[in-house]
From TrEMBL:
The keyword Hydrolase applies. InterPro entries: BetaGal_gal-bd (IPR048913), Galactose-bd-like_sf (IPR008979), GH (IPR017853), GHD (IPR041392), Gly_Hdrlase_35_cat (IPR031330), Glyco_hydro_35_CS (IPR019801), Glycoside_Hdrlase_35 (IPR001944), Lectin_gal-bd_dom (IPR000922). This is Beta-galactosidase. Its EC number is 3.2.1.23. It is found in: Secreted, Extracellular space, Apoplast.
Amino acid sequence: MDEPSQSMANMWPDLIKKAKDGGLNAIETYVFWNAHEPLRRQYDFSGNNDLIRFIQTVKDEGLYAILRIGPYVCAEWNYGGFPVWLHNMPGIEMRSANNVFMNEMQNFTSLIVDMMKKESLFASQGGPIILAQIENEYGNVISSYGDVGKAYINWCASMAKSLDIGVPWIMCQEDDAPEPMLNTCNGYYCDQFTPNNPKTPKIWTENWTGWFKNWGGLDPKRTAEDVAFAVARFYQNGGSLQNYYMYHGGTNFGRTAGGPYITTTYDYDAPLNEYGSLNQPKYGHLTQLHNILRSMERTLTYGNVTSTDYGNSVFGTVYSIDNTSSCFFGNANVTSDATVNYQGVDYNVPAWSVSILPDCKTEVYNTARVNIQTNLMVKESNQAEDEPASLKWSWRPEINLEQTLVQGKGQVSTGMIVDQKVTNDVSDYLWYMTSLNVDKDDPIWTDDMSIRVNATGHILHAYVNGEYLDSQWATYGIFNYVFEKKVKLNPGKNQITLLSATVGLQNYGPKFDVVQSGISGPVEIIGRKGDETIIKDLSLHKWSYKTGLHGLDNKIYNSDSKFSAQWNSDNLPLNKMLTWYKTTFKAPLGEDPVALDMQGLGKGLAWVNGNSIGRYWPSYMAQEDGCSTEACDYRGSYYSSKCDTNCGQPTQRWYHVPRSFFQDGVNELVLFEEFGGNPTLVNFQTLRVGTACGSAYENKDMELSCQGRPISAIKFASFGDVQGTCGSYHKGTCAGQNDALSIIQNACVGKETCTVSASESTFGVADCTEDISKRLIVEAAC
Ligand code: GAL
């Protein structure tokens, strides 16, 4: 892990506040074992790792907390949150009834529990923590562990119970959770979930608001309508508690991104985007839903339930107590809208939606009718500087390269090829070095010799006798490959140096912890002569190893590094491997979040004032296929690739730099470029709402906001059956008679927010046919 800093912790209060404003009453978090116990029995709860401070911040906002200790957490987090030193403990078998593992797991879990108790943070002590979690989705993999799996989960339950926290423990995705553990659900929909114990409340620990991204993969999107549908249906069908995963996914700073190949961004299409800004309409549409559900708390909690099946996947549910009742009308049909007649009144329920009537008379919410603006964000150049032209770059090659490339000098050596995890994962990089003596009499000596390396990923750079040969890396989901390249050997001694780089260790799957990493071998020299092939296996040679890079070891990304003076300002090399680049800049003005545009670079690591902003890899293009040109249809079951975007673009071009990473005056950006790239296009940008598209169905209010800026112009406004999407609206077959554009201009331009009622009394009669739900649609420039 990179050194923790105070910086990210500074973002917590604002994010938690926004979650509260979004109508949430609890914050769920994982606990990351590898962050807190980076070395065995050496703990880190400082800065960003200050778990107590996090829970206190949640408490200070008046919210509950759910503590998912795990300590296996998955989470697209490096190695699922396990410290890699665990893997190297003799005799260990992870997530299994194995004494070595259980001892470590119990040690860490009780440490966390004790810390919480000491600060009185459990609800049983008057604190905010209402639930705690042990293990994570073990039920998904238990069958691969045989009988030991069952013994392990029983042990987890009794160990957790013995910690006596005074609030319930949950085990998500664990069908046979032993009592008193509560089995909970994770997924896109959990309305059909039934816990194994009839006394267990129906709890949804992970409602996936979108999905994560891999290098080479696309940007998953999930519509606001579909997430709202899933939530409303869950509560219609007796749900007690649901948690968004993610509500804010943020950024995998440092080397925290999991694997294989999880990107630095963990935006997740969550209601709060990677930068902490509102992802509209998702944030607002769900906020309205939360507020309505909470207004029905009494009927939902204590009411008697009656359900009616109207046929064709249409269900009505009434919760009533005393003289009050609340109704849900749900239509799970994918294509046909429904009319529900309840107590003599007809209610239209669109396909794949739920209507909520808190008093069983007036529909106040339908999951498919969005009365919230859509935001389109824009990126602006850094107003404090004229970037990228003003950025003056200096550079230096990686330190002491000749030691590995020419001398093959490592820190340890052994007679075999090792898994990269032996290094305890202190770096992405491991050098594998060996030498080979051949003379011209050797049977392998031909004019057609190659080196062949079996690798299990992720990235391999090969050098022979100090000369770069070639590189290869796993692409598009194939994580084992064979590297083969022609070589010219010298008679006598030849130095073979292979640099392996990992891009996040496996974090999910049965026995994910023993998935190989680095160079698996064999490594062979192949000589071909006519139809004869001679193979020399180097796997059992003496191999020397060096972990990491000298530049990383010496932290040359910090301005106080002893190498800080040794940078060149002339002859800036472009597309040169293993090169360090440095520049200074002024922080962008204002308060808007900041992104670093890494266009032109290959792959590597980046730091702003010594804070790691994560791995970058803009040269890796997302796959070409799988994006639709049509707007995403919210109807029908969601799956992670249903509404993908970003085909054929860099997987990740922009990287979040938290404002708190900056300082007044001069700031420093340092890059370690592994593949070779061109830094001259790199620049800082700020993000803000560029276009806001207001939307309101008839007789609802259309609220429009440029979020802290005045509305500068209205580009489109119409009340009727508007077609298209934000950015490309056009009038439909019918529209109110009055001039909608000037009405909205008068009401909104120059203001930060405005509210206009979507009604015929404002916009005039719209001659729409009966089956059309009229909407006011506005497109504003911010
Ligand atoms: C779940 C897991 C989470 C996360 C999620 C996908 O299976 O519990 O930790 O990995 O999938 O984002």
